[in-house]
């Protein structure tokens, strides 16, 4: 469903070639530290490694995240204009192929997760307190809201510009599959939701069989600004790995994440370790730990079996569109390494 990006070695060669070309033409570049073409345009490069650890799917094309359009249930009217109050509900619309129908987001600018791609990041943001003109322009048939964003729904109603728009309220904080079904039902697409969840589950099980996932124990470690968290089974990425059938080390088979300490540090080890970084401070902590002797003395780091994944997709969100991204991460990396 998702196209596989070029391999890390291919990207490394491409970046190296770009650097060499830029160095040879430095007389034509600017005096700052930004890589530029001879004409002065900024050269974009993709980071492929962090602290000697390869990034899974670096430079992924998020324009391909969303699935194709779906049709309404037989005999039900289509929904063509939607305003959303909670960015966490956008994933479901992305997975239903309904991005074109979203006409406004009652949330601050920059609230849309990058992984949803340009169609969603370009949705007009109406702010926490939308004005009537903006709401009239969006002209929603449906307002998709959540319990957590009830104040934004109230603000939308206060404009007096919603007209006959109906409200669909879904809690995205619970079971992600149920939340997807609830959003789909509100969009008159229960059949599409069932089909798309079945398609994902079938592909996840297929990938698990082909890659012999039950015989690979995979550890999840998340670097936060304050700790190194050894993850359990409740995080979104861990749930997707369970559907695939990936095994987890015995200390990580309970729901809750626990901080790494002197007593349990080796619980982070496994056949393969996926690491991620919560924000810039989490990244800095991760770099320090990944380059430490204590970390490197564990089995997976010794065998170059540590890989970095996208923290936003694996931990900070949930939904069918994100689930496909996690599945694709596992598909291209379960039998990979950070060697090279």
Automatic annotation (TrEMBL):
Signal peptide: 1-29
InterPro entries from the UniProt entry: ABC_transptr_periplasmic_BD (IPR002491), Bact_iron-sidero_bind (IPR051313)
Taxonomic lineage: Bacteria, Bacillati, Actinomycetota, Actinomycetes, Mycobacteriales
Keyword Transport: yes
Originating species: Gordonia neofelifaecis NRRL B-59395
Family recorded in the similarity comment: Belongs to the bacterial solute-binding protein 8 family.
Keyword Transport: yes
PROSITE patterns found in the cross-reference section: FE_B12_PBP
Main location: other
Domain of life: Bacteria
Subcellular location per the Swiss-Prot or TrEMBL entry: Cell envelope
Any GO BP: iron coordination entity transport
Annotated Fe/B12 periplasmic-binding domain residues: 81-338
Gene Ontology CC: outer membrane-bounded periplasmic space
Keywords: Signal, Transport
Name listed for the protein in its UniProt record: Periplasmic-binding protein
């Amino acid at each position: 469903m998702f196209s596989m990006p070029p391999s890390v070695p291919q990207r490394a060669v491409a970046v190296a070639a770009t650097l060499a070309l830029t160095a040879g033409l430095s007389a034509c570049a600017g005096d700052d530290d930004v890589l530029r073409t001879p004409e002065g345009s900024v050269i974009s490069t993709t980071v492929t490694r962090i602290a000697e650890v390869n990034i899974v799917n670096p430079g992924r094309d998020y324009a391909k995240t969303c699935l194709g359009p779906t049709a309404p249930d037989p005999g039900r009217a289509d929904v063509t204009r939607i305003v959303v109050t909670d960015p966490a509900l956008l994933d479901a619309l992305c997975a239903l192929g309904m991005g074109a129908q979203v006409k406004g987001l009652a949330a601050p600018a920059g609230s849309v997760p990058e992984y949803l791609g340009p169609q969603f990041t370009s949705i007009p943001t109406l702010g926490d307190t939308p004005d009537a003109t903006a709401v009239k322009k969006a002209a929603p048939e449906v307002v998709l809201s959540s319990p957590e964003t009830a104040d934004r729904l109230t603000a939308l109603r206060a404009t007096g510009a919603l007209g006959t728009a109906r409200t669909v309220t879904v809690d995205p904080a619970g079971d992600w599959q149920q939340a997807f079904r609830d959003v789909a039902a509100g969009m008159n697409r229960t059949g599409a939701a069932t089909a798309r969840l079945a398609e994902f589950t079938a592909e996840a099980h297929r990938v698990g069989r082909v890659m012999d996932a039950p015989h690979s124990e995979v550890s999840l470690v998340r670097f936060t600004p304050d700790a190194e968290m050894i993850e359990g089974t409740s995080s979104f990425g861990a749930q997707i790995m369970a559907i695939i059938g990936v095994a987890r080390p015995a200390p990580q088979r309970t729901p809750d994440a626990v901080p790494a300490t002197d007593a349990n540090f080796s619980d982070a080890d496994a056949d393969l370790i996926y690491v991620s970084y919560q924000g810039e401070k989490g990244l800095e902590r991760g770099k320090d730990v990944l380059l430490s002797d204590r970390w490197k003395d564990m089995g997976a780091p010794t065998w170059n079996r540590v890989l970095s994944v996208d923290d936003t997709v694996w931990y900070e969100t949930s939904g069918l569109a994100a689930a496909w991204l996690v599945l694709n991460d596992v598909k291209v990396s379960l039998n990979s390494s950070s060697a090279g």
